[in-house]
DNA-3-methyladenine glycosylase (Blomia tropicalis), 249 residues
Amino acid sequence: MSTEKRYISKYFPINKLNKKVKTNKPKLKNEIIQLPVNQMVRSRLIDSNFWKQSTIDLAKALLGKYLCRSVNGTILKAIIVETEAYLGAEDHASYSFGGRRTEANEPMYLPAGTCFTRMTYGVYYCFNISSNDEGGAVLLRAAEPIEGLEKMSQLRRLHPKAPRKDKFEEKPYQLANGPSKLCIAFDIDSKLNKASLLVDPNIWIEDSNILHKNNEMISRTRVGISASNLWSDKLLRFYLNNYQSVSKK
């Protein structure tokens, strides 16, 4: 069995996709009517009330959920395994520190569940999600792929900064084990800025049956924050310790 099939079967059994639904349309004997792709894959979309929580709570609650993306008809899916919380005006490491509000960070002030894609170093993107706090957002740092691995590998290899050699087939956890890698693997860039995860047909979050014990969720300091920053020692990075895709343990 291929790596991709093994991952899909383990976390999201294929037979769940072939769901029969009632229809008034006349059908031939033995004909199976299937859900349209958009309706089928979004059937596990999390409730809108999920987003009505603080930045820290949202960062923790997103762990174990599925990040889903539709790219030219191909569904990409991964388990969110690492996040960082940026609390807004009080947070010295946040783009919205001091209540700063500009065109660039406007998505941080939009309704909870809004995508905030920000370019770094002129070639990479980071993917954030606005929270219920004013100016608060959660950075998705890493995710463990379970569906669409072939497409993710293709996207990683097409990027201008693609690794000269990779082992994505042998080590699929390396596809999205960092914030920029995640964006490349999921084709996330400026075109998704300000998109709503509640209604956008191309990107969404699905619930899962993945449960984790308290001791499996680890809190650490955020990555890339200067030691001179007053909030550099805050434990606002959260990850699930039992996944290989975590960027830093």
